[in-house]
Amino acid sequence: MTAGEVILFHYTVSPFARRAVWYLALRGIPYSQCLQPSMLPRPDVARLGISYRRIPILSIGRDIYLDTRLQLPKLEAMYPELPRLGASTADQRGVERLLSAYMTDGGIFQHGVKLLPLDLPFLKDPRYFEDRGDYMGAKLSVEGLKKVRPEALGEFAAAFELLETTMLADGRAWILKTDKPSLADIEAVWPLHWISGIPGALPRDRFSPEKYPRVYSWIKRFQEEITAAKKRNERPKTLNGEEAASAIENSSWHEEEGIVDGEDPLVVAEGLKRGGMVSISPTDTGRAHKDVGRLVRLDKDEVVIEVKTAKGESVRVHAPRHGYKVRRHGGDGRSDVKL
């Protein structure tokens, strides 16, 4: 891949956005940012013709990438002159992918939401529960958070215990025994870094540097590396929504269109064809927000659709196959396949 202009749509306290920000910082990749509100609506995203509600969103040229599980591998393929963060051997790649699955697909982040201290200011705002209820696909409330907190504490204790007694047990600085933090460290650290940094989220008697000395030392080392990397790098330029959209619309394509794999079971079952209209949406959180566009590519790793921005310009939206639903879409704007 060639290196196009990188723009990150995010808000600074988003745990998922931190994954992308950390990756960009550790590799020293220059980028611009378009800061977003923590709750809907997000007019800057809608301006791009995108209904997707999750953060972060990454654009490289006229190609727009959803989900950090796709964004990080795309960035890894860029800037060959810079040291990469991904694993170099098959067994290390296995550890990296399993950590991603455990922390992301395994629901550790969702359990972290249940541990938010109930005296946080935004938890007193009814709009928060309405917005995050839409995100989670379930009704949320203060009383509901109280009820599920014990279960969430157990899940986080298991995550701390796993890292303390296995991957960090021999005293290594980083998960894969690297000299610097790697992608495997990002995959493992982000929910623990997030929730341990919120005062009152984890009870001191069950979670402390004395109980989990290796985990807490690792989190501290990781933050020190991020702080140092940000000091070395040029600060990202902040764009408003109009500036970001203009930069994207006036860019060239970052990737070739690719192909639609005619032998893919989904392509066969749905009768999907290149150029046909499809909808894509996450299968876990934010699944009510579907994007509809012309199918450009579908292979084992990703699905790509072409959509129109508010100004009528074409951009391509990329989503990973894993964790996303793809359905044929009728010309009248309604899905012709029962969901």
Explained architecture:
Residues 113-231 form the DUF7962 domain. By secondary structure, this protein is an alpha/beta fold. 40% of the residues lie in helices and 15% in strands. A 10-stranded mixed β-sheet has the order 5-2-1-3-4-9-8-7-6-10, sandwiched between helices. The chain is globular, with a radius of gyration of 20 Å.
Please name the defining characteristics of this protein.
DUF7962; disordered C terminus; Thioredoxin-like_sf; 339 residues; globular; GST N-terminal domain-containing protein
Assign the structural class, choosing from mainly alpha, mainly beta, alpha/beta, alpha+beta, or little secondary structure: alpha/beta
Helix content: 25-40%
Average pLDDT for all residues: 94
Taken from the alpha-carbon principal axes, the silhouette is globular
Quote the distance from N terminus to C terminus: 35 Å
Low-confidence stretches: 332-339
* Pattern of helices and strands: EHEHEEHHHHHHHEHHEEEEE
Number of helices: 11
Largest sheet: 10 strands, mixed
What is the topology?
Blueprint: E1 6-10, H1 15-27, E2 32-35, H2 43-46, E3 57-60, E4 63-66, H3 68-76, H4 90-105, H5 108-113, H6 126-136, H7 142-167, H8 183-196, H9 213-232, E5 237-238, H10 241-249, H11 265-270, E6 277-282, E7 291-298, E8 302-308, E9 314-320, E10 324-328
Parallel strand pairs: 1-2, 2-5, 4-9
Antiparallel strand pairs: 1-3, 3-4, 6-7, 6-10, 7-8, 8-9
Helix pairs in contact: 1-3, 1-8, 1-9, 4-8
